[in-house]
Amino acid sequence: MLLKRLSIGIIIVLSTVLIGLVGYLFILLAGNFAIDNEKLVMNTTTSLVDENGELLTKLYIENRELVSIDDIPDHVEEAFVAIEDARFYEHQGVDFRAIGRAIYRDILAGAKVEGGSTITQQLAKNVFLSNEKTWLRKTKEVMIAMNLERKYSKEELLEMYLNRIYFGHGAYGVQAASKLYFNKPVNELSVDEGALLAGLPKAPNSYSPISNPDRSKQRRDVVLTVMERRGYISAEEAVRYKGRTIAVDHNKITENDAYLTYIDMVLDEAAETYQLTNEEVLSGGYRIVVPMSQTLQQSTYDRIRNDDYFPDGNEEAEAAAVFMDVKTGGILAVQGGREYVRRGLNRVESKRQPGSAFKPLAVFAPALEEGQYGPYSMLRDEALTYGGDYTPRNSNGEYSGQVTMYDAITHSTNAPAVWLLNELGVKKSTSFLEQLGMKVPDKGLSIALGGLEEGVTPFEMMKAYRAFANQGKMIEPHFISAIYDRNGELIGRANEEETEVVSEQTAWYMTRMLESVVKEGTAKSGTVDTPLAGKTGTTSFPGVEGGTMDAWFVGYTPSVVGSVWMGYDLTTTDNYLLGGSSYPTVMMKDILNDLEPTLKNVAFEKPEVVDELLPPVRLATVNDLSAKLQMGGRGLMSVELDWTGSKDERVYYHVYEVHKGERERLATVVGDSNYVVSRFNPFSSKTYEVAPVDSLTNQEGDPSNRAEAEFSLGF
């Protein structure tokens, strides 16, 4: 037994001498060991906040929030120093006493049971070295630690250490750990909470208060005991703190799947506009202010995934939706697909056939801008053939000969749209589309019906409709309102400059006509509790009779403009829509019903400089015309014609006399429903009829019943 102790003593003495010699050599060499200071720059978490400053989510490679040593309470610093490196403020990076003690205990145990690394050595290892266990790596660790001590103060080294170490559950650094486990910043931690965090770095998973609360408490109590032994707290305080339970307020940093598309498009904009790579954003500690509406973002996510909004049998169909603030151009919500995955196919940016939703952009707005057509101009509604082989047809197979632009938009008739584009000229249409940011290579009249070679994206459609929603002006949509670096310095703001592409008058006329689409036209399906203007679009799938390839609704309220698309990524005879535009229309209306009160129930406001668009004149057929003979007038007898007139003062009447099948117009009656035929020949057979006339279009309605002159019973 005595021999064994003597052997151990000799080994310890020799080890101590050896450590001293090696230590002296390290001191000589360490001064020349180069340190890459760039590696000391830590990855930090980027925060996405809304425009009210509320945290939406965090973006990070490592979930870390840098904190100054000045904001870390003394008792938190003391807890870490006590348990990790009691002589931290005394050594120069390497604690030879601790190393000797560790070697002694390892020898006694016959295995490695205690480490002798200082806080500075741990920092050196974590920043500059790999985890390989070799003497060369350990030598480098000591040399770097000693050099770090020369270059930085103890406070700076402790700050770097506390900001870098891993605390489990994805949290790096004491600030992120404090918010994760206690849902508060580090400067609000109590002594026992600081002790709990100090006990985690040795084995973050084993001592996690979330996964292993009992072991976490035991480890915390060990730290408190060491703090009392080192004189940081009294014995009475140690007993009191140990009596506290582990009170974790777990602020779980989760990634809401509803935000995935939005986050990806934020990252894309950061790269394109601010030249920040994805890696830089995820590690640079930026604060990015985004215009997202959490309510709208969640609503689009929930509804786009709900099978009830799709035709029966189309549960596997895809969809995309995007909404923008009319005034600022800030994107409020976006969903790139029903099961969107990070950096996956973003259908908001996929080109599709827009169908009739393209008519306002390609035909009607540019026609209004030309000045030769107005909302009540008459357009030909006939099955005409163009270029020898193109005969556009109305979906219901019916043609009225003539129809107003207003009604052509409201009921989405195809023939008038193509006729008008032919009159306007394709070149004027494509030039106008280019102003809207759409470069369409097509040269044919099928542009009028959204039959495009390449198609357009839901994002482009939303952006273009904004011109109608806001006085004819375009704006560049943005996902980033402002971006700040880790020091709080502003890097840049969104450009909210506007460009006029149509006149205010055209924009207002389009709004009124697109309101009619929602109230009485193809977008009547569903209900919405805010004013809404918009256009449906349905493209047929030629492979199946009655099949649909793309279904759209693009529209806007006074505050929000959006686009919803439904369809399959690849339409085949096995995968095609069994319904049309009514489905995305209902979905959009329900999404808009979820708008925050500040974005709802606002009427469309007419600019002072524009003329109001009066509602269309609807001509009712007169079926109660009477013709009464009476004595007098310019001749011996006269005829008094009476009928029930319209309440709309814009309706006037043509009065006709019919003799031997020939009609002769006798008069035009304005503001009345009575007319006296002053001369009547009782020996001739004559009847009378009246026809209502639209004063806006000068179009005559159906003739009334024919009335034959006869004496009244009272004669």
Report what the structure shows.
- By secondary structure, the protein is α+β, with helices and mostly antiparallel strands.
- It has 20 helices and 25 strands.
- The chain is elongated, with a radius of gyration of 40 Å.
- Helix 1 crosses helix 5 and helix 8 packs across helix 9.
- About 3% of the residues have low confidence.
- The chain is 34% helix and 17% strand.
- It folds into 3 domains: 202 residues, Penicillin binding protein transpeptidase fold (Orthogonal Bundle), CATH 1.10.3810; 293 residues, DD-peptidase/beta-lactamase superfamily (Beta-lactamase), CATH 3.40.710.10; 86 residues, Immunoglobulin-like (Sandwich), CATH 2.60.40.10.
- It has a 5-stranded mixed sheet with strand order 2-1-5-11-12. Strands 7-6-16-15-14 form a 5-stranded antiparallel sheet, with helices on both faces. Strands 19, 20, 22, 23 and 24 form a 5-stranded antiparallel sheet that branches.
Give a short summary of the structure.
This is PBP1A family penicillin-binding protein. Keywords: Carboxypeptidase, Cell membrane, Cell shape, Cell wall biogenesis/degradation, Glycosyltransferase, Hydrolase, Membrane, Multifunctional enzyme, Peptidoglycan synthesis, Protease, Transferase, Transmembrane, Transmembrane helix. The protein contains 20 helices and 25 strands.
